[in-house]
Design brief:
About 30% of the residues lie in helices and about 25% in strands. By secondary structure, the protein is α/β, with parallel strands linked by helices. Helix 6 packs across helix 7 (about 285-300) and helix 9 (about 390-405) packs across helix 17 (about 580-600).
Length: about 775
């Protein structure tokens, strides 16, 4: 028992509040049913130790012997060391000094007096203790001892726990899957290219950080002269950079032909070449290690640089079942060892060896896994996508997707970065003289940034419209199998070119755009076979916003939302909006999450869709409105023109309902929407009812004039002339084509306005259309 110090005088190290907390903790511990004894607290210089004796719930057969076959006693002494900031941080449990450390879930360190420390919780103990308290610490300690007594600290259901190396200061970065692919049944070794940093410490134990590159390097006396290098970096004289080799080892097979499997868990205790050889024997790699080091020693004989140089050694150890959280039984155990030219290891088996942690190198698999994506970055499982526009929004979207492991296959943008772009662009400008390099093409710089994440994006520093219209460029920019083309330019010209390209575009187009200084955002996704297409979707979007007051004010209002609003729908394009980086990031992140979800779940299989994002009143969040957009009805003009009329599903419904009200007479109204002379398309997204002075008869419909001009102007002014009159529609009672009167009406409408108009006819068999006046491309040719 520890001598009581309850009545010690108050000290600066332990306040009354701290002592009170320790007393309360001891009361909780003593009440635990597994605790048989508890000592009085021993107040040291910086910590307080409490010894307890817990009863491990052994089966009856083992209770009689007083311990389990795995060396766990029925009554185990556990020390609890309370830190100075308790209860902010929890007490650390430790076991008797002779408790076996060759058990899983054991911390890689000892207490100052040599007691092993069990790892009782998967996660941070500080977080666990704040949730479960001291009683939770005791519960987990007893549970750990129970599992240790029964040999259940490792189970196939949970997976094999790798040797604890997470607290090691030295580590190696490598592609773990690449290293494991070298393993075969024959056993062997390979030398791979290896770069490292050495940070010299005054106490004599250097810190080492390395990276293994998947490039096999033949080793001989001739090749060694060009392989091993080490030299100072910077002016401190303590940091050195080196190039060398990593030795990858794996076990072969037993005489029976079965592969060598290491079923014994052992704590990391390698400190020198002798213990490294012993560990190699345990792993079944002694011959491979001996052969590899012999090859190294013979190759550096006579090398003109003395060294030391660093060698990374990786054992690929077969375990009886898969590692925790992995789909492979191959555990990777890494070490650092220095060698010299001439006699590689002049100190022989006493040559120091440092165990090293292993970190996965940046890869799509790692990034996807950390992003919570189940397929872990498998390129075959996620469809490829292309990006148009590498500006503020496009760059953020691209890097969000890249950090999830799914970078765009290409990025098209012919503009260069300007200094003002640094305010919102995802790329970070370098300092000093290197800033000149930052003023390169956006597409090229963004592709270089993607390469840092071990992914490839091909830059196309070309005018987007040229790429769209040039087959040799477009088939490379969005190759066969491209799932979607994402447009972030907010350019009306680019949008028109995409619409005009029709089915020459490989993949559906998704556009992400911001309005009103980042108060309104839109994600528009085309339907199957590009119906509804971009032109349909944006026309529909304008009509949707008209019916929502908050959106209408942002999109069509004349307030100071942008630098200057001259053309509705311009968005965040060449006339740059004033908005913060954080605000544009809200929409960029949402666009990336949308793409990831659609890559996982698939694009809409029948409709297009709009996601309209509205900044909330706090300015901290965005509420998203999801709108399904069914395919538009497409009607070709029947008077020899190339124009067509695209009619939204809502408009079709309104026309059919109006026709049903007049079963014995022709009826009609006014078409509202937008027209595009590039694609020669009328996009009809609304209709106005016929004025009260209209006349209807079985053979004729005459549109009245009472109030019609005011109704049209009011509608257009409410949308700042984004939507306007496109022409008229009327019905036929019988399934017939346009009559002579219809053609005369079309001509009369055409005389009334310079721009082309549409005359839409509803018949029992469907819709027909005529182009009414205006100058078309056909006229000019």
């Amino acid at each position: 028992m520890v001598v009581s110090r309850w009545d010690m005088a108050e000290t600066e190290s332990f306040t009354k509040q701290y002592r009170s907390g320790i007393r309360q903790a001891c009361a909780v511990i003593s009440a635990h049913p597994a605790v048989q004894q508890i000592s009085e607290p021993d107040y040291g210089e910086t910590t307080v130790r409490v010894n307890i004796v817990v009863e491990v719930p052994l089966p009856n057969a083992w209770r009689a012997e007083g311990q389990s076959p795995y060396g766990v006693m029925r009554f185990e002494e556990v020390c609890l060391d309370f830190p100075p900031d308790f209860p902010l941080d929890p007490p650390e449990p430790s076991l008797r000094p002779d408790f076996s450390r060759d058990l899983a879930h054991m911390q890689p360190w000892l207490t100052q007096d040599g007691r092993p420390v069990p790892c009782i919780q998967d996660g941070k103990m500080s977080e666990f203790s704040h949730q479960e308290g001291v009683r939770g610490v005791i519960n987990q300690t007893v549970l750990w001892l129970d599992h240790a007594a029964e040999g259940r600290l490792i189970s196939e259901e949970q997976g094999w726990e790798p040797t604890r190396r997470d607290q090691l200061p030295d580590y190696i970065v490598a592609d773990e899957d690449v290293l494991r692919r070298y393993v075969d049944k024959r056993g062997g070794y390979r030398f791979l290219q290896y770069h490292y940093l050495r940070n010299e410490k005054a106490e004599g134990v250097d810190e080492l950080y390395g990276q293994i590159i998947d490039k096999q390097t033949p080793l001989s006396r001739e090749s060694a002269k060009n392989i091993f290098q080490e030299g100072p970096i910077g002016v401190s004289g303590k940091l050195f950079g080196g190039m060398g080799l990593a030795l990858i080892l794996w076990p072969g097979k037993q005489p029976s032909g079965e592969p060598v499997i290491c079923e014994k868990y052992a704590q990391e205790n390698v400190i020198d070449l002798a213990s490294l050889k012993a560990r190699a024997s345990l792993y079944g790699c002694h011959r491979e290690l001996t052969d590899g080091l012999s090859r190294l020693s013979s190759s550096v004989t006579g090398y003109d640089q003395a060294g030391p140089f660093n060698l990374a050694i990786i054992f690929c150890v077969r375990r009886p079942f898969n590692l925790i959280g992995k789909t492979t039984p191959i555990e990777l155990c890494a070490y650092f060892i220095d060698f010299h030219a001439g006699e590689a290891f002049p100190n022989g088996d006493a040559t120091p060896v440092q165990p090293a942690g292993l970190r996965e190198q940046i890869s799509p698999t790692l990034l996807a896994r950390l992003s919570g994506l189940s397929d872990q970055g498998n390129e075959d499982s996620h469809p490829s996508w292309a990006l148009i526009g590498a500006g503020s929004l496009g760059s953020k979207l691209a890097l969000h997707m890249t950090r999830a492991g799914f970078a765009p296959v290409s990025v098209v943008d012919n503009s260069t970065i300007s200094p003002h772009n640094a305010a919102r662009h995802a790329l970070i400008p370098p300092s000093g003289d290197m800033q000149l390099r930052f003023l390169d093409a956006k597409a090229r710089l963004l592709s270089e940034a993607v390469a840092g994440f071990s992914q490839t994006t091909t830059p196309f520093v070309h005018d987007v419209v040229k790429v769209i219209n040039t087959r040799s460029l477009s088939k490379d920019a969005w190759p066969k199998g491209t799932w979607a083309i994402v447009n972030t330019t907010a350019s009306l010209r680019v949008r028109a070119a995409l619409c005009a390209a029709g089915n020459n575009i490989r993949g559906r187009v998704i556009e992400s755009v911001l309005y009103g200084g980042g108060k309104l955002g839109l994600i528009a996704t085309e339907g199957p076979h590009r119906n509804p297409g971009l032109g349909d979707l944006f026309s529909y979007f304008y009509a949707y916003c008209k019916s929502h007051a908050s959106m209408r004010e942002i999109l069509f209002g004349t307030g100071d939302h942008d630098l200057e609003r001259t053309t509705i729908g311009q968005g965040c394009g060449s006339s740059t909006m004033r908005m913060s980086d954080g605000r544009i990031s809200l929409f960029g992140a949402a666009s990336a999450e949308y793409l990831l979800s659609k890559q996982r779940d698939g694009l809409p299989d029948e409709n297009g869709e709009l996601l309209v994002g509205l900044l909330d009143q706090s300015g901290l969040g965005v509420s998203w409105h999801h709108v399904n957009v069914p395919p538009f009805t497409v009607v070709e003009c029947g008077n020899g023109e190339k124009w067509s009329v695209h009619i939204s599903d809502e408009v079709v419904t309104k026309i059919v309902q109006e026709v049903s009200l007049w079963p014995n007479a022709e009826t009609g109204g006014v078409l509202i929407g937008r027209q595009d002379e590039i694609t020669q398309t009328f996009y009809v997204v609304d209709v106005l009812s016929a004025p009260p002075d209209s006349t209807r008869s079985p053979h004729e419909f005459v549109l009245g004039q009472e109030g019609i001009r005011k109704s049209i102007d009011d509608y257009s002014e409410e949308t700042n002339w984004t939507l306007y009159c496109l022409g008229t529609w009327h019905s036929h009672l019988n399934p017939s084509g346009p009559s002579g009167l219809d053609r005369q009406t079309a001509q009369a409408i055409g005389l009334a306005r310079l721009a082309p108009s549409a005359l839409l006819i509803h018949t029992p068999d469907g819709f027909q259309a005529l182009l009414a006046g205006g100058r078309s491309r056909t006229d000019e040719q």
